[in-house]
Amino acid sequence: MAEMQATNFIEQIVNEDLTNQKVTAVQTRFPPEPNGYLHIGHVKSMLVNFGTALKYNGKCNLFFDDTNPSKEKTEFVNAIRKDIEWVGYSWTKEVYASDFFEKIYEYAEQLIQMGKAFVCDLTAEEISALRGTLKEPGKESPYRNRSVEENLQLFREMRAGKYPDGAKCLRAKIDMASPNINLRDPVIYRILRSTHHRTGDAWCIYPMYDYAHPICDYLQGVTHSLCTLEFEDHRPLYDWVGITLGFNPKPRQIEFARLNITNTVMSKRYLKKLVEQNLVHGWDDPRMPTVAGLRNRGIPPKALLDFCEAAGICKADSICEQSYLEHFIRDNLNANAERAMVVVDPLKLTITNYEGEEEVEFTVNPTQENSPVRTVPFGKHIYIEKGDFALVPPPKYNRLKLGGYVRLKGAYIVQCDDIIKDENGEVVEVLCHYIPESRSNNDTSGIKVKGTIHWVSADRAVDCTVKNYSYLLNDAAYDGQDFDERMNLNSETVIEGAKAEPYLLTAEDGKQFQLLRTAYYKKCTDSGKLCLSFIVSMKDSYKK
Ligand code: ATP
Ligand code: MG
């Protein structure tokens, strides 16, 4: 294969392995545990695993790491498949750790035969008490020197269901004095009566991840096993399994930094807590950093991939600002989303010298050359934002004020003549006259106005609900910490009584819009009613 230009350290290693003919083709795998929904960190993992395989014209499997039956469900398997497809990747084969349970078991017997594994009767607590610390070596189990025959018999009896859960386990016999605690005779099989989502009750012993993973990689023909940094300390065990069992060619584990983002929770186990504690409406809540949540939010997958690519594949842990992600979403939507007008907090405006109704032209997306144009109904009565009129305007106020002019986007210039107040003294209607010669694209009025505001026809507008979102967590710290105290309990606000132009009613559900001068929103229908759900703000707060 002709050498590829490496764009990150993983590709550099792959290049070397190809050059040295350690491998002839590239095989990777994307390895989620089906114990929850995928999140944006997994998009980075997909980019690394599927992306590297694609670059080298290799293969990437979808590998379900299902060695933990009590936490795994078919619901999650299906959600994971759907999410990967939505991100835009396809896998060579769909493979499960459970496909290999028999083979993994045989390898364990082989380790026993080699004197490299033993059945231990210590409890989990006793094992951890003897494990030692970073400074002190561990102590050997009193069961460590059982004979091969005894170990084999006990292990077979474990499989046959002779012992209760936790009564025994199988441990690799490595080195209780190793500076790497993972090598201090790690447990490789446990007894656990738990119905597995695929193998049912066929097994009452299950292999541990660290032992099963290198075997599954090898059996799939994985050449480069790409995972996150928390597995770096596990690599010596990964290698021990491969070397001891004589894997050839032995898969190579390479670790890269996790994607971390401010003001949100990332790991599946924590996201699950949010769902279970009803702190969000489910895995696909638009505030969630899950792939399902991001999709439901209306974020294009391309924006996620561009973001992960820009965040970079490297070896050192770091944390990305949420505003950096938003930057990519906004860029994408600015280029692709249609524009529309919605008045979130309506104030009535009557054009006293206008009669009848007409359609004015509206550019669908002004960033696109030859953007299509559609029409918007205009009439005597319209709504503008309350915030676009000021009775006591601050200095440099370019919106509407008594006696002032403003352009109504795509329509005419109006001048404010009068107001109507209610019994509380609040302005409930503004009265204007329009300048007939000032129609957009054909303005011969000669009047220069500083402000352009959005509006909707009062007679033709449709009522809608606006849902706004902010960050799930109040502070910027990320993951791994207790988030209960840090939850932003006002991360969702619902506004009723907004007025949308009628086009939004007919637009496709799920479609993204830039609501002029407001923000990017996704159209949805909530109990038969038009609803606009916040995607991202208009202003870029990301500092390059
Ligand atoms: P759990 O909390 O259950 O461990 P997880 O979020 O770590 O969940 P896994 O199913 O363990 O998810 O991860 C599947 C793959 O995705 C692993 O290879 C893991 O290294 C990678 N991955 C997980 N989180 C991230 C992240 N934030 N950035 C990049 N890769 C990640
Ligand atoms: Mg994990």
Helix and strand arrangement:
Blueprint: H1 9-19, E1 27-30, H2 40-55, E2 59-64, H3 74-87, E3 94-96, H4 101-113, E4 117-120, H5 124-130, H6 148-160, E5 169-172, E6 187-191, E7 205-207, H7 209-220, E8 224-228, H8 235-244, E9 252-256, H9 268-276, H10 291-297, H11 301-311, H12 322-336, E10 338-340, E11 342-343, E12 346-351, E13 357-363, E14 373-379, E15 381-385, E16 389-390, E17 400-401, E18 405-408, E19 413-421, E20 427-434, E21 452-453, E22 456-457, E23 462-469, E24 492-500, H13 503-506, E25 512-515, E26 519-526, E27 529-537
Parallel strand pairs: 1-2, 2-3, 8-9, 10-25, 12-20, 16-17, 18-21, 23-27
Antiparallel strand pairs: 4-5, 5-6, 6-7, 11-24, 12-15, 13-14, 15-22, 18-19, 19-20, 23-24, 25-26, 26-27
The structure holds adenosine-5'-triphosphate and magnesium ion.
Entry summary:
With 544 residues, the chain is α/β, with parallel strands linked by helices. It contains 13 helices and 27 strands.
Strand content: 25-35%
Rg over CA atoms: 31 Å
Low-confidence stretches: none
CATH superfamily of the domain at 342-460: Ribosomal Protein L25, Chain P
The N- and C-terminal alpha carbons lie at a distance of 38 Å
Biggest sheet statistics = 7 strands, mixed
Shape verdict: elongated
Which CATH C-level class of the domain at 342-460 is it? Mainly Beta
The average pLDDT is 95
Task: Count up the helices.
Answer: 13
Bound molecules: adenosine-5'-triphosphate, magnesium ion
Estimate the helix proportion, in percent: 25-40%
CATH architecture of the domain at 342-460: Beta Barrel
Can you count the beta strands?
A: 27
Strand order of the largest sheet: 10-25-26-27-23-24-11
Which topology of the domain at 342-460 does CATH recognise? Ribosomal Protein L25, Chain P
Label the structural class. Answer: alpha/beta
